[in-house]
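Researcher: Please generate the 3D structure of the following complex. Treat every line as part of one assembly.
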Amino acid sequence: MKKLISKLLLGVAILASSACTKTDNYDGPNASFQGNILSSEGGNLLTSGGSPQIWLQQIGWTTPQTIPCKFDGTFEDTKLFKSNYKAVPTGGAFWPITDTVIVKIDQGSKHDFTVTPYIVIKNFTSTLSGTTLTLKFNITAPIAAGLPNIKDIQPYVNTTKLVGAGASIRDFSDVNAIAINKAYTDLSDADKSITLTIPNLIPGRTFFVRAGVRLSDSFNSSNFSEIVQVDVPK
Amino acid sequence: MKSINKLIITITLGIGATVTSCQKLNIAPTNIVTPAIIFNSEAGVKSLLATIYADLPIEDFKYRPDGGDDNNGMQRPGFNPGNPWMNFYNSAAVTGEEVGPFGGMDIGSGFGYWPYADIRNVNTLISELPKHVATLTQATVNSLLGEAHFLRAYYYFGLAKRYGGVPIITVPQDPGAPLSTLQVHRDKEQATWDFIGAELDLGYQMMSEISDAGRANKYVAVALKSRAMLYAACVAKYGSTNFIDGPARGQGLVGIPADQATKYFQAAYDAAKLLDGHYSLYNQNSSDKVKNYTDLFLDASSKENIFIRQYSITLNLNTPAGPHSWDATMSPGRMTSGGLSRSYPTLDFVQLWSNLPITNSDGTPKRFNNLLDLTQGLEPRLRATVYFPGETLRGLTFDTQRGIYPSFSGTAAAEVAKAPNSRTWQLQTDPNVLYPNKTDPNAKQVIGFTGISNNLGDDQLTRTGFYVRKYINYNAAKTNVDLYKSIQPWIDLRYAEILLNRAEAAVELGNTGDALTDINLIRDRAGATPYSSIDLDKVRKERRMELAFENQYYWDLKRWRTADVVLDRAHFKGLMPYYVFNENKYIFLAETELFNREYTFQKQFYYEPIPGGQINQNPNLLPNNPNY
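Model: Done. Output below.
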């Protein structure tokens, strides 16, 4: 009996050791790609959830992929396959870039893209009076000719630092939008000096606020101001 | 020795018999249908046609523009989805005609419709039929070929309005052919529409004047042509001002040069004109125009029906021609014996006709003695399209009521602007709760049995104050209204649409006289005041009113290239009826519908993305449409 068991065990051991042991010799998605979307007007492009993306097409493959851009204008993807990719920033409120760059993505690859924003928000100030917040700023366009029409200008108000299109409280944000629907070149200087009013903020709360200018480009994308924190006193 | 001899003889005989017995087994397999079986009799061809018609992309009751489920081998997303009872998932529910089941613009990218297997069936039919003239006769072959060209155009129309240019494949491909010939490039968008137009011309020339219900005849072909050419014309005219650039556009795979628009408008107009005198608007009951308009969608003998899809209660409910569930899913549970509703007409849609008289000149809500009084003087077509509060179905009243105000003062606008917790209303989730209490002799229900519940998670009752009336079979007994019990046909093409196609093309071509006549025919039947002059806005508005809930407006918004403007963070309104207790009167307030959905149509949705799986099989389908 013991002999039988040891023979059986031997058999199993032989089978196990001779079983298919080929290892997967392809690298996993261990390459990474990160960088900034820089504004031609200085600093990173101010963005919001779901707007700009880095469009990537692995050379030799047909289906593109995208890396969404973070609120501070940076992007990062740490699970990419090592390869050459065509890359281009897309989907944000900046002049379209038609030339795709070819980047070699490997471990720790970095690349910065520079874009020209449609609209830049300057001299952004916020003043709170009671529960009414007033935002004042000027808008300028680095390139005015051929700019998509400006649809509207509005505040974005949220209770977290992640504030922007798709991340805001509608009753404080979309409701206080000013419709423009004009070409930038048809705006007078006075029209380019904007005042937004947000009434009836809730006392004792902290809000994060920014302004956005929405354009009628193919993404209906927006250019944003920086984000300010507003503490409404009790 | 003798026995050995015997043995030898026996073995020799045995081997001899075995060796010479070999006869090749060569008979046709009896379980495979060969072309000869199908194409040598008209009945055989009809059985193939039945498959082709069943797979036709008709956007009927069961059509799910988001694709829906595919939980069963015989079903396919979109046109024959799994769980085919959920008829409230229609495209009206993302365009503001209705609100309900979708969380937003959930249908913009489509569901990867790619019917080349179905097109192959038609291509086989077209290539086989001419070989069988001897058994089928030349006349039959011609008429069937005409029908096949119509069917092929129908499939390509379903593709062109989604993707723009697609590969035009007109012969059954040989699966053994080299890959390079199987991976066909996309044709230009203009070439695709021209192909559809030419196919429908063949259909018109080759088919006869009359056909069985549910099958095409020559007028069905030109009716579809008027719809298709109008789409192409609008792509040319409006798609050349509102577009997204990209390689596909640069190569003409999407988009048509603007100077082609007139040609297509003319083709749409000419096609529609060919139906003159062969069909007419349903006008059986001119004294009761509400009844006439509701019966138009239920009367099988209607001369307005050009092309319909029929359903049968005896067929498997998971097949395209199995019964549908419109009655059980468009009305509240009070009027049915099963099912549930989930999509409801909006006040914005109802106010296409005109603003409802719910507010006095001083801004206070008008007081009504009963709910139905609001419908006094409304256009019969509107009342036949939408169930207002106070209307009756199967002997039961829509007692729709959002709540009770113990007393009400001030203007409607001021009341609606108040924070919900500072309004003095009484709301409820249970229709059996009475106000002020159940022992009070004057006690009233806080909400109706048909809504509006304050339980915002319970979406089986209206959130807008309205229910759909179009296509509702009011003759069906309540006990017989349940899931998979409805068989009223879907009217895919009706003469009113042809008049609207004709009027729109005419206005675009500058022929306002013809357009005015067409529109006034429709307005007269609807019970509306005729127009004395016409313009494009009026024609488009008439189209929205006449063809509401028929899965047309979504495509209209797309071809007019106005969807991204109309549906830009759009919210819609409902009509909320309240009972004012101390006055014993009803008031109506226009408020945001209770789902509070937001709809945004992105510009890239004017074309759907070529399905990724198809691109993997055929990289020649690239470049994909802009922004995908």
